[in-house]
Amino acid sequence: MKLLKITILSLFFINTYIVNSQNIGDFTSIDPTVAQSASFVISSSHTFQKIGEVGDPLSEGGTFKPKPDFTAYVPIANSSTNGYLSINSEGSAVTDGGGGVMVFDINFNATTELWESTASEDLDFSGVGGTAANCSGTVTSWGNVISCEEGVVGDILVPDGYNDLGWNVEINPATKTVVGKHYAMGSFAHENVTIHSNDRTVYQGADSNPGYLYKFVANTAQDLSSGNLYVFKGLKNGVGSWILLDNSTQSEQNSTLTQSGPGDHDATVFNGIEDVEIGPDGMVYFAVKGEGTVYRFSDSDVLEATASTVTMETFVGGGVSYDVNDGSGTTSVAWGNGNDNLAFDGDGNLWVLQDSGKGYIWVVKNGHTQASPDVEIFGSTPTGSEPTGITFTPDYKYLFLSIQHPDAGNIANQVDAAGNTLNFDKGTSLVIALSGNLGSPLSVVNKDLIKEFEFFPNPIKSDKDLIIKGKQINNTKLYSLLGEKIFDIDYNDVNEVKLNFKNISPGLYLIQINNKETSKLVIK
């Protein structure tokens, strides 16, 4: 007993040290030479928990919608443990029942150290003529979410003078209501917006080719329904300025792309602007998917009270390869195309999600330059998928994102921090954190499997047999915390099983019985 207490205390202090000495951006890169697989591969220092997956029932009716995208954590009173999770559906309401936004009331359970949902609802957009292709967006300082419609459809289905799709839509996750579509922000394939701290200036881009970079300056703070719209014209590595667009009538607001293009303002063309974010340094960063580049620029007058000067440069990518060290060696990895969603963590690192190749989650470390690069790879999404949407809690301990359109044939059998078995054969939304911040490793002591089965002893020495008792035991599996399957043994309706772990390294594992009941196991 004394030895057990010492072991538990050691685990506690080691866990506490790791949590207190690390931030979410502190990790060792994954091995970039490994091929993409059915599993969700992330750095070994972190773990994840499922929030929901396509087809799961929602508490207020309906099911989790297809093609989950932007996962916007909206804190209640700036809380990092209690808030709303707004999840976009990038699907088409016509072809696959998608499109729209779901809102989950979520909170972090301090006892289980897991996230829980107390309510979930599919919002009603009928008051604004419906919505679809809801891609990314942003969380406003006033507690609302901007959901961006990536598709553009003319004034066909709801003849009201405005294009049916191609707008920024504001929702209130607390009241589960739609504030409205913001026509003054322009009609184009919206991917994302970012709002300046003045609550008036918004930077955004068109996810098309040709695509353009825009600045919107609202007339009134926290009211995006009216204002001036500008398009960027200038050098991609050099100086440019903003050109004011005609934006007061319905036809002008419907024709944002036409006004920006050849024969009119001849604005600078970008091949698919995905995400736009304002960095902690005050510069504006934006990802261009087709160019494989993240640019950044300074804006001398964010309110455009006078003609501002825009100074732009390539921040990361642009046909460059970077040395990635996975702890055992260094590999030169091409940045590639497909730069998508962006987000800064609390240390000023830029997280870049990639929707091509291996579905990498890149992290560009604070202080990186093209002359002195510092780039790591945090994760790789399952076969056929891309990582989408990304927000952090205010304390930056938890990261929310979605896995969109994975291959339907994926069989990953990964076990998350809550004991859920995931195959990643359908769209899934997740929360990610350091292992010490998600799921309690100390909860394994003297913990039996729930309901049908019991097993003992736990912790167990590697030279002892683990006894499992229960009715109709048909299968046992052992997983590492990273989801690696250690063994998979079938039985024929037996009532007792003995397992020996003499060839398995000491550590914390997950044991699963009959593919449904999972618990943590300590091997000493």
Automatic annotation (TrEMBL):
Organism: Jejuia spongiicola
Residues in Secretion system C-terminal sorting domain copies: 456-523
Pfam families per the UniProt record, alphabetical: PhoX (PF05787), Por_Secre_tail (PF18962)
Protein name per its UniProtKB record: DUF839 domain-containing protein
Signal peptide: 1-21
Keywords on record: Signal
SUPFAM superfamilies, per the entry: Calcium-dependent phosphotriesterase (SSF63829)
Taxonomic lineage of the native organism: Bacteria, Pseudomonadati, Bacteroidota, Flavobacteriia, Flavobacteriales
InterPro entries: PhoX (IPR008557), Secre_tail (IPR026444)
Recorded superkingdom: Bacteria
